[in-house]
Every structure is written in C-alpha cells, then in structure tokens.
Amino acid sequence: MKELINSLKGDKVIWAFIALLALFSFMPVFSASSNLAYMRHGSGNALTYLLKHAVHIFIGFFIIYQVHKIPYHYFRGISMFALPIVWVLLIYTLVKGTVIDGANASRWIQIPFIGISFQTSTLAAIVLYVFVARYLSKSREVEPTLKQSFIDLWIPVFVTLALIFPANFSTAALIFAMVTMLAFIGKYPLRYIGLILGVGLVSALFFVLIAKKFPEAFPNRVDTWISRIDNFMGDKPDEDIYQIEKAKIAIATGGVYGLGPGKSVQKNFLPQSSSDFIFAIIVEEYGLFGAMGILSIYLLLLFRFIIAAHKSNSLFGKLVVVGLGFPIVFQALINMAVAVELLPVTGQTLPLISSGGSSVWMTCIAIGIILSVTKKEEEIAAELEEKQKREEALQRLIDKQLQEDEDEIEEVDENQEKVNQMKSSIKDKIMEEDYSIEENPMLAIKGMRKK
C-alpha cells in the first residue's frame, strides 16, 4: 500500500479529497439503490448495485492514474483532433440518443458490444475546455481581433453548444458560463466578452422561441427542459415538482443529526434517489452535519484547485485546472441547489458520489488531467530543489578546498616564520659571543666591529 501511495504523483491533497468522496459514496448509493432493486427485481437487495458502483469507482481511479501520467501539454494537441470527433458523437446522440431508466431523455448513446450508456456532452465539455485553454494561452502575447478570435475560438464553441443545447440545456449553460470565465481569466478583451455574452443570450432566446412555435421540429428534450423552467417559475404539478417535494421532505426529516445510515424513507419514493437527488438522501440519513461535511469537501477541493492553478508556471496549465476543476465543484453546487429548490431540475449528478458509469469516468478524466498539471509542477520543483542541492554541495566542496589551501598557506607561513626566527636567534647568538683571532679570525673581526 505504501508503494502504491508513493507511486501517486501530483497534488496529494486533491488525491485525498477525491478518495474521500469516492469512499463516502458507497453508503448513500447502497442505501438509495434499494428502491431500484425492489422495483426491478422485487427483492430489495441492493448488493448488485453496490458492486456495480464499486466497479465504476475502481475503473474511475484506474483512469485517473493512467491519465495523470500523461504530460498535460499533450492534451493541447489532442483537443484539436478530438473536437471534430466529439461533434460527430453529439450529432449521433441527437439522432439516435437512447432513453435511460424510462426518463424522457436522449443524452446518452449505447456503446456497441459493451452495453454501457455514454453521455457525450460530458466528454464534449472536457475537450472544449482544453481547446479554449489552448487558444487563450497561445494568443496571450498578441491581442486577438474580434474576427480572428470569432473564427478560431467562438465558432467551435457555439457549434459544440448548439449540438448540446437541444438535449441538455443545463450542461450547455454550464459550459458556456465556464468558457466565458476562462476567457476572462485568460485576459480575453472584456469588450469582446460582453459582445459574445449578448450573442449567446440572443441565440438561446431565439432557439427557445422557435422551439415553442414548432415543438415537433425538436423531438428531443427541448419540451422537457422548457417545461421544467416553466414549472419552476409556477406551481403546476408534474413529475419534477413531485421529486422536489419528496427531496424537501427528505431534507426536513433529516434535521440536524439525520435518521442514520440506510434509514432513509424518501428513497422509496424518489425516482432518481441514487443519482440526481442523492444529496437529499444524504441529508435525510446524515443530517445537517453530513450535508455540511459534503459541502465542505467540495469547497476545499475548489480551494485546492485555485492553489494548483496559482502554482502552475504556464498559462495553459492554469486555464486547464480552472476549466476542468471548477465545473466539478459547480456541478455539485447545482445538484445541491436543485434538491432544495433553488434551481429547476437539471439532471446534474453529484460528482463522484452519485451512481453512474460514464459520468464518474468523465469526472475522473478531468481530475487526471488536473493531477497531470500538478505533477509537472512538482517535477519542476523537484528539479529545482535537486539543482539547488547540487549547487550547495559544489559550494561546500569549493569552500572545503579553499579552507585547505588557506591552511596550507598558513602552515607555510608559520614554518617560514620559524626559520626566520631561528636564523635571527643564531645570528644574535653569534654576535653576542667573543672569538679570538686564532679560533675564528672572521668572527673575531665582526665582534670587534660590533663593539
């Protein structure tokens, strides 16, 4: 286990928060899935759904591990080639989208030979965020013109949104908001951002008016999300109002401390209790403390994303962390807001907690790319630290050698001083003694001169 943990690179705090959310998800998913087990199998045994969720989480972490090993700058080029592929998948989804769990939705496609449903809009969001980050980081030095940026940036953005909007209004709105925020952070001219916002809002309004006038021209989910907005603004009873009412009952029943794990009552009445409305089940079973705990983890994760973006040395890395990290937290906040009727029903799941396959895996891909950015920064920091250590070691060797040379010089000076002292003492001794001419004429003459 220690070796596995040491093999995990990147921001360890992000790893910890993701693991904490994934581990906690088993309890509410196991509890909320008993309703599905009873309706489908009549037994109420949710063990199958728990194992299925465990497989999804295991594959998700495997995806994170594999993606985070890829240098994040590779995704700069991948986004260019992946975006046209995403458009093809989105078109196919609009034409051949399937219905999941009886819901009036066509946001998924069935993967052949595997039997797994896949929501293409989540993949489109990841690719588009990286694509936008690539463009903004490339055009940072020279301010782009409106015409050039509209062709290179905003046409791909609006094409992607146009293919998502009819089937999934909430996802399209979230993507557009995040792209606009990325443009602001990337120092895209504010006057252009205001113009793009105006174009986007007018286009959305025009589409809604056309959809209301000719509902048969849009057989997908247009009438569904339009009715959701109308019902949210009014009091017309329908399935969404029913789900909201049950969610609010669950939240009110939970109180401060909750009923306890597995003791939810409203899970038997909420159709999407293990996915879209799992937050209501969490509050019912774990109370206000449980709700605040989950909310705190997401907010701390947001704070960690901000730190990771700040530490990144490249603008592309900063924008990638913001573009992929912030939507995860905002999606969680939207899910919680729907449960307490602050927003109309959107179909947004609670990231890493709600049951589901493709939604969990797409979130894991985004987290893997974020960890790849933090891993690169750690590698750069480690290289700088290693370089500093080498320089310090080299400086110590130089200082040691200089000290040895100084010691040798001092030793030579001391020896020379001793020799000079000896010569001087011998000379003085000789000069002080008397010598006869017979013993040493030269010394005798010197002695006489001295006297």
Automatic annotation (TrEMBL):
Kindly list the places in or outside the cell where this protein is found, as annotated in its UniProt entry.
Membrane
What is the E.C. number? 2.4.99.28
Q: Which reactions are catalysed by this chain?
A: [GlcNAc-(1->4)-Mur2Ac(oyl-L-Ala-gamma-D-Glu-L-Lys-D-Ala-D-Ala)](n)-di-trans,octa-cis-undecaprenyl diphosphate + beta-D-GlcNAc-(1->4)-Mur2Ac(oyl-L-Ala-gamma-D-Glu-L-Lys-D-Ala-D-Ala)-di-trans,octa-cis-undecaprenyl diphosphate = [GlcNAc-(1->4)-Mur2Ac(oyl-L-Ala-gamma-D-Glu-L-Lys-D-Ala-D-Ala)](n+1)-di-trans,octa-cis-undecaprenyl diphosphate + di-trans,octa-cis-undecaprenyl diphosphate + H(+)
Residues in a coiled coil are 373-422
**Pfam families in alphabetical order:** FTSW_RODA_SPOVE
- The transmembrane residues are 13-38, 50-68, 74-95, 107-133, 153-185, 192-211, 286-307, 319-340, 352-373
Example GO biological process: peptidoglycan biosynthetic process
Annotated Gene Ontology cellular components are: cell division site; plasma membrane
Q: Which InterPro entries match?
A: FtsW/RodA (IPR001182)
Q: Which UniProt keywords apply?
A: Cell cycle, Cell division, Cell shape, Coiled coil, Glycosyltransferase, Membrane, Peptidoglycan synthesis, Transferase, Transmembrane, Transmembrane helix
The UniProt entry lists membrane topology as:
Multi-pass membrane protein
- Gene Ontology MF annotations: lipid-linked peptidoglycan transporter activity; peptidoglycan glycosyltransferase activity
What the record says about family reads: Belongs to the SEDS family. FtsW subfamily.
PANTHER family, per the entry = CELL CYCLE PROTEIN (PTHR30474), PEPTIDOGLYCAN GLYCOSYLTRANSFERASE FTSW-RELATED (PTHR30474:SF2)
Q: What is this protein called?
A: Probable peptidoglycan glycosyltransferase FtsW
The organism encoding this protein is Flavobacterium aquatile LMG 4008 = ATCC 11947
